[in-house]
Write a structure and sequence with these properties.
Largest sheet: 6 strands, antiparallel
Number of helices: 7
Order of helices and strands: EHHEHHHEHEEEEEH
CATH topology: Cathepsin B, Chain A
Strand order of the largest sheet: 3-8-4-5-6-7
CATH architecture: Alpha-Beta Complex
Structural class: alpha+beta
Radius of gyration: 19 Å
Shape: globular
Oligomer: single chain
Number of domains: 1
Helix content: 25-40%
Number of strands: 8
Distance between the termini: 70 Å
Length: about 260
């Protein structure tokens, strides 16, 4: 299995993400996975494009209530125009999110995800103006990277943004398992974290032809195998977070006021 996950090069222009403490995070958050289209990369080194497709699928499913089917191949072609890596070695997190913020992603009906093609054919599709026009309304508002993370902070990002991009170190135990183990750092692999419980996180994966194994569970003890964390930020979530912070501040002011009155 060829996987395509490369660590970002240092760029001081990258935006770091931090969340406030306004939102109460539940112990368990598990979405209805049946609402999300599943993606399969075959032997293509395009896990990054498939993970990016999952991000937009989750966003659009939540916003519109429909089950969109996007084109990882479109995203991959646009990524390979900017990432400066050979087509056979994958991509980095910055390039995935940058393309989503500048180009968006088009419907699979306009560019089917034919993973049986050669690497060269898959990465050299004829991207038409119709595809670009169709993709543009799906651009993300902005994106950023998490500098330091813990299990609790990952839960906060997942609950706030609903889809968090992870670059993992995996080995052969990753495949054909819904609860993989981690021992060796053999491959870089992109997935999207989209749920959690008290023991770990749930991720959407693109390496399984059998879609019943597309949702994998990473136990908390294996989180050190996460190499990088980033996410597409949603303006609505940011606004909600700020509103909740204001509400909590006003509540504190009211509490202080009543305490003063009762003295």
């Amino acid at each position: 299995m060829i996987l395509g996950g490369i660590k970002n090069k240092i760029d001081l222009r990258d935006r770091g993400l931090k969340l406030g403490s306004a939102i109460d995070i539940p112990d368990t958050y598990i979405p209805d996975w049946s609402k999300y289209q599943k993606y399969y990369q075959g032997q293509q080194p395009a896990c990054g494009a498939h993970a990016g497709s999952y991000i937009k699928t989750i966003q659009e499913s939540i916003e519109s209530g429909v089950k969109p089917n996007f084109s990882p191949r479109f995203l991959w072609n646009e990524i390979k125009k900017i990432d400066n890596y050979p087509i056979e070695v994958g991509t980095d997190m910055r390039s995935i999110l940058k393309v989503l913020s500048n180009r968006g992603i088009c419907d699979a009906s306009l560019l089917p995800n034919d993973v049986e093609l050669s690497f060269k054919e898959y990465a050299n599709a004829n991207i038409t103006q119709e595809m670009l026009d169709n993709a543009h309304p799906r651009i993300i508002d902005s994106y950023g990277f998490v500098r330091n993370w813990s299990f609790e902070s990952l839960k906060s990002y997942i609950y706030t943004f609903k889809a968090v991009l992870l670059l993992l170190y995996v080995d052969d135990a990753w495949f054909r398992s819904i609860s993989p183990t981690f021992t060796n750092r053999l491959y870089g692999h992109f997935v999207v974290a989209a749920g959690f419980d008290e023991g770990g996180i749930y991720v959407l994966d693109s390496t399984e032809r059998d879609f019943t194994r597309s949702v994998k569970y990473i136990r908390k003890k294996y989180l050190p195998f996460i190499r990088e964390v980033g996410t597409a930020t949603d303006a609505n979530n940011t606004i909600v977070s700020k509103h909740l912070e204001i509400i909590k501040l006003l509540q504190k002011v009211v509490q202080i006021y009543y305490k003063l009155l009762n003295k």
